[in-house]
Amino acid sequence: MTALEQALLHLPHIGPKRAERLAAAGCGCWSALLAADNPLRLAPERWAETVAAARRSLEALAADDPRPLSGALATAEHWRVLDHWFDRASFFDIETSGLEPESEVTLVTCLHRGELRLFLKGENLDDFLGLLEEVKLLVSFNGSGFDVPRIEDRFHVPRIPCAHVDLRWLCHHRGWRGGLKAIERQLGLARPADLAGLGGAEAVWLWQLWSEKRDPAARRTLERYCAADTVALQRLAAELLAAHGCAVTVPEAEALWRVVHARLPPPDRPVVRPPPAPLPPLAAAAAAAADPARSRAEKQKRLRELWRGLRR
What does the pLDDT read at residue 284? Predict the structure, then answer.
């Protein structure tokens, strides 16, 4: 009996207390529940709805289809889906031309069946949609709010054709807060030296250097940065499953980076990073608002002055 088969909270009329009562009555999994004679003494029509949902869950499991289950289970329970299909999960990350809603997808990297795949705008980006048809379970970090909507918009599809698990929310429910790189540091995962300190803003100007000046070092650094994000997801997923008591092998950092280095050796020369751009007025005001030396009234007054100046 797997952890996934013990998921009961997605069933109609079953909350935490009733799930405990079912487990105590020997009905702690879907198949046992189907054979039970309404141990909760629910109204017959309600028990029938609970049993029907358990049957649908078993059917999805038998069909080896994680989509109905990832859709039915609450986000906090998605670790069960991840555990069941972990060995066949595909991990992915994207980069964009900016952080604005209208910015374009520039690069997708995907660790699929042990192979690191790259899809670059202007070359083979459209091929990623074909790869998604092969994916059993797609895993991301913050993909629900960023990567997946961007992919759906880019390819003009209402939804991706595979199940999806977002590690960001699994981390949140475990109390692991922050972005991907902050959580990596908490777990003791150090990135290769040439990628240390890179973030989303750097990915934007690396793309600009490649797209406008055809700088090969910029392209390779961008690809390595995105690939590092992707392979790190496999380590993070394994750490999450281990924290839930699942039997899983957590990959060593060196093994992850070997995957990146083998596919994308470091560039021959480092990319010179530009100086940080000055903050726009409202961002500067937000930074000033964090100054503990200012009183709350002073911060609010400063923000009002800047806002009035922008409206003139």
Answer: 54
